[in-house]
Amino acid sequence: MLRRFIDIQVNVLCQDLASLNTIVDNGSLSPPHDDVVRFILAEISVMTDYLRLAIRTATFIFGIAPVLRWGTFFHRGRPVERVRLLLGCRSSRVSFFRDFVRFYENLVLLALLSREGSGG
Amino acid sequence: MTLRPVQRAQVVVVGSGPGGAVTACLLAEAGKDVLILEEGDFIPQESCRPFSVEEMGQKYRNGGLTVALGKTKVPYVEGCCVGGGSEINSGLYHRTPPDILERWRREFLVEGLLEEEMLPFFEANERDLGVTLMPGPASPASLKLHAGATLMGWRSQEVPRWFTYDAAGVGRRNSMTKLFIPRALKAGARLMPGTRVMNLRREGVGWRLQATGRNRKERIDLRADAVFVAGGAVQTPALLRRSGLAPRAGRSFSLHPTVKVAAEFSEEVNSVSAGVPVHQVKEFAPHYSFGGSVSSLPFLSLVMADHADHLPRLGKVWRQMAIYYCMVSGHMGGSVRPLPFFDDPLVQYAVSDADMASLAEGLKNLCLLLFAAGARMLYPSVPGLGPFGKREDLAMIPQRLPAGLANLMSLHLFSSCPMGENLDLCVVDSFGRVHGQDGLYVADASLLCSSPGVNPQGSIMAVVRRNAMEYLERDKRKICAN
Q1: pLDDT in tens, B269-281
Q2: Is B350 exposed, middle or buried (CB count within 10 Å of its CB: 0-12, 13-18, 19+)?
Q3: Is residue B470 helix, strand or coil?
Q4: Catalytic amino acids of B?
Q5: Chain centroid to CA A92: how far?
Q6: Of A8, B261, B275, B446, which is least packed with CB atoms within 10 Å of its CB?
Q7: pLDDT of residue A24
Q8: What is the DSSP letter of B137?
Q9: Residue A120, pLDDT above cutoff 60
C-alpha cells in the first residue's frame, strides 16, 4: 500500500519533470513517459539500500506534504500547481529540496535523452 | 534458501575486476586450483553501448546510484559484473608516477617498490593489455584540450589505452572479460558469477567463506587454503570489517574529487560515436589535472541541469559541446564501514578545504585553457556559478568551491586497505597479506597507499601482479622447505 503510494508519486513527479525538459523538438521526447518512469523505478529498486530507504521516505513526505496547502496529495494536485512546486524546489535555498528534485531530474534527463531518435 | 554442496579450492579470488582477474590468471597459470567468485553477472562487452543507461543497469553497482556522503556529496561509480571496473571505464593507462612510488616507500614502508623493481610488472601488463596510442587522430574534443594547453604553454599528452584497433581504426577495450578471465579459465580456473561473499573466517589452516548465490536464494559454503579479496576499494574493506578481520580496513578510503565543465564551441566537436577524449593536461600534477569526459547528449544534460535556463538550447548545440574535468588528488578523508541492518556499506568522504581550493583554482585554469581553445561559453557543474562567456567572468570563481553546492563526482576509489610495514597506517603488508592473517590477501585498488594522481588501474594491476608473483615465490619456498 505504502510502496504503491510512493510509486504513484514517482510516476507523476517524473512525468512532470519530463514534460518540463523539452530539449529536443523532433518529437522524440513527447509523452507518454512510461519508459522513463520504469527506468527510474528500476534504478531506485537497485540503489544502495540505505539511500533507497531515504529516497522512498523523502518521496512519501513529498507526496503527502501538499495536503496542508492544496488539501490533497501531490499526485492529485493540478498540473500547474505541481510544476510550480517542482520549479520552486529546484531553485530552493534548502539543499534537501534542491537535491530531491535534482535526483529525479537527473534520472529523467538520462532516460529521456537516451531514447532512440533524441540525437544522443 | 537452498544449500549448495561445499566447494573447495586451493585459492579463492573474491572479485573479478582488474585486481582479481590478474591474480586469478597468474595463479591458475602457475598450476594453482583457483576459484573466482563474482557478485555480478557475466555480460559480454558488446551487450550494450558503452556509457549508456542500459550499461548502468547491467554493469554498474547499484545501477550507478552510489555516493560518498559528506557535507559535499561525491557520487561515484563501480563495476558490478565479471571484469569489474575494466568493463565500464575509459581504458586510459598510466604507470604510477615515480615520486608517488617513492612517497609510498618512505611513508608507508612498502618493500620492493623502487621504480626499477616495479618496471617489469608495468611492462608485462602493458604487453598483455596491448597498451597503445590511437592509430589515427584523436577526437575533436580531445584535440581542443590539447590545442588549448599548447597555447597556454602547459604540458599535455595523449594517454595510451588498453585498446585493440581494427583496420578502420575503431577501438575495442581489452577489458578483463577479453583478456585475463579467458586466460584464467583456459588455465583451469573456475568462475562463479552471481555469488556474493558475506563472511570470511579462519578454519584450521585455511579459510571458510559463506556466500549467497543468485538473488540471494542459495547459500554457498566454500573452503580455501588462501583467499585473495579483490572486491574494490569499497567492497573489500566492507567484507574484512564484516568478518571482523581487519578493524583498520576502510578508515583511509580516498578518491579523486572531480569538477566538470561543459564547453560550447563555434564548430562541431561532438557526435553520437565520439568516445572519451584521450588527451590529459598534467601541468599542475600531482595537485590537479585536466581531461575530457564522455559527452553524449544525456551526460551533457546532467552538467547543463546546473544551468536550467540554458538547458532547452542543448538539443540545438550539443554537437558543439564537450565535457571536460578537473580532477584533484584528494586526501585520505574517507571511510567505508558496514551498517547494521543494511547490506550495503556506508561510504563517507569529507572533501577538505584544501581540495575545494584546488578544485576552484583548477576550474579557473581549465576555463582559461578552454577559452584559449576557442570556447565561446562555459558551464561549470556548480549551480549558481556562471556560465562564463569571457575570460573576465572567471573572476566570479571563488577561492574555494562552495561546500555542499558544487556537483562533484569521482571515478577513482582507492586506499581503503593501504599496503606497507608501517602498522600505524597499513592494513596489509608490502605484498598484500592482511597483517596478522595468514593466507588472506587483498588484491585491488584498496592497496594503493594514497592517491596515485592519475587513472589508477595501471597502478593496481602492476601491484597485484607483483604480489601474485611474490605469493607464488613464497609458496614454492614453503613447498621446498617441507
Answers
A1: 998 777 889 999 9
A2: middle
A3: helix
A4: 412
A5: 16
A6: A8
A7: 62
A8: P
A9: no
Tell me the C-alpha distance between B236 and B335, whole Å: 12
**B156-158 β-sheet, strand order:** B156-158, B279-281, B288-292, B321-328, B258-264, B377-380
Question: Looking at this protein, which amino acid is placed at residue B164?
Answer: T
Q: Which of residues 32-61 of A touch B (CB under 8 A)?
A: 39, 42-44, 46-51
Picking from A106, A101, A99, A120, the residue whose alpha carbon sits closest to that of residue A28 is A120
Q: Which residue of A has its CA nearest to B316?
A: A24
CATH of B133-172+258-329+352-407, one of 3.40.50, 1.10.600, 3.90.320, 3.30.410: 3.30.410
Contact A64, A15 (CB under 8 A): no
**Where in chain B are all domains bearing CATH 3.30.410?**
133-172+258-329+352-407
How far is it between the farthest Cα atoms of chain B?
74
> How large is the ipTM?
0.90
List the one residue out of B255, B236, B231 whose CA is nearest residue B410: B255
User: Which letter, b or e, does each residue of B108-144 get, where b requires 16 or more Cβ atoms within 10 Å of its Cβ?
Assistant: bbbeebeeeebeebbebbbebbebbebeeebbbbbbb
CATH topology of domain B1-60+76-130+174-249+415-482: FAD/NAD(P)-binding domain (3.50.50)
Nearest to B312 among A23, A47, A48 (CB): A23
Residues of CATH 3.50.50.60 domain(s) within chain B?
A: 1-60+76-130+174-249+415-482
Q: In what order do the strands lie in the sheet with B131-132?
A: B131-132, B161-165, B171-173
Place of cell 574484512: B240
pLDDT value at residue B52: 86
> Using CA atoms, how far apart are residues B81 and B87, in angstroms rounded to an integer?
8
Residues 6+ apart with CB under 8 A from B204: none
What does the domain layout of chain A look like in residue ranges?
2-113
pLDDT in tens, B5-36: 678 999 999 999 999 999 999 999 999 999 99
Using CA coordinates, name the residue in chain B closest to A26.
B315
Say what the pLDDT of residue B314 is: 87
**Ranges A94-108, B9-23, B150-164, B349-363: which has the least confidence:** A94-108
- Would you give the DSSP letter of residue B337? E
| CA–CA distance, B270 with B281 (Å, rounded to integer) | 20
Which amino acid appears at position B189 of this protein?
Answer: A
Q: Do A49 and B297 touch (CB under 8 A)?
A: no
| Cell numbers describing residue A41 | 523505478
Question: In this complex, is the C-beta atom of B204 within 8 Å of any C-beta atom belonging to chain A?
Answer: no
The whole-angstrom separation of Cα B27 and Cα B12 is 10
pLDDT exceeds cutoff 90 at B127: yes
Share of chain B above pLDDT 70, in %: 99
DSSP annotation of B96:
P
d(CA B251, CA A39): 35
